[in-house]
């Protein structure tokens, strides 16, 4: 199959309608478990980008090209750097992580490690970089 006919496959489009959301959910699960178990930002970002690649194969790059994916990488880099710099500015070691404890009205007491914000930055860097590459390759003329 050529790239032009690949997006015309009704089987591929039907499978992607189920596979893409499922892959994104698994990606979010791996992201969320990352500060306690193996996983985290990098592999979750790679899985989310794989879902994006499936979408691009099934539906083409036109819709995905409307999003400036590189901005995800920039925001992720800022998030990761901020997570490391804030403790340094507070007189602690660079990347010294702690826990945030707070109460939400419907969810109750929350106990979140600040490492989650670093993982979020890595997730956004990987997702933004890979999706930028995938979209640019998808738009490239043969």
Q: What does this 3D model show about the protein?
A:
This protein is mainly alpha-helical and 142 residues long. It has one domain (3-139). The protein is 65% helix and 8% strand. It has helices spanning 3-6, 10-33, 41-59, 70-89, 115-139, and strands at 99-104, 108-113. It has a two-stranded antiparallel sheet. The longest helix has 25 residues, at 115-139. The chain is globular. It starts with a helix and ends with a helix.
What Rg is obtained from the alpha carbons, in whole angstroms? 18 Å
| Strand element count | 2
Q: How many domain modules? A: 1
Helix content: 55-70%
Unreliable runs, pLDDT <50, ≥5 residues? none
Helix count, DSSP H or I runs of 4 or more residues:
5
The largest β sheet comes out as:
2 strands, antiparallel
- Fraction in beta strands: 5-15%
Structural class of the helices, strands and pairings? Answer: mainly alpha
Mean pLDDT across the residues is: 88
Strand ordering within the main sheet: 1-2
Q: What is the first-to-last residue Cα distance?
A: 14 Å
Name the overall outline.
Answer: globular
Order of helices and strands: HHHHEEH
């Amino acid at each position: 199959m050529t790239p032009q006919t690949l997006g015309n496959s009704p089987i591929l489009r039907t499978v992607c309608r189920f596979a893409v959301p499922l892959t994104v959910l698994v990606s979010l699960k791996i992201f969320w478990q990352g500060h306690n178990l193996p996983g985290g930002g990098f592999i979750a970002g790679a899985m989310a980008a794989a879902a994006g690649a499936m979408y691009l194969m099934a539906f083409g790059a036109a819709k995905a090209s409307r999003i400036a994916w590189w901005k995800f990488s920039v925001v992720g880099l800022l998030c990761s750097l901020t997570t490391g710099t804030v403790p340094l500015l507070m007189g602690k070691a660079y990347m010294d992580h702690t826990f945030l404890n707070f109460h939400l009205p419907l969810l109750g007491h929350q106990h979140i490690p600040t490492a989650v914000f670093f993982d979020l930055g890595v997730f956004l860097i990987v997702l933004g970089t890979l999706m930028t590459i995938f979209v640019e390759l998808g738009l490239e003329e043969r």
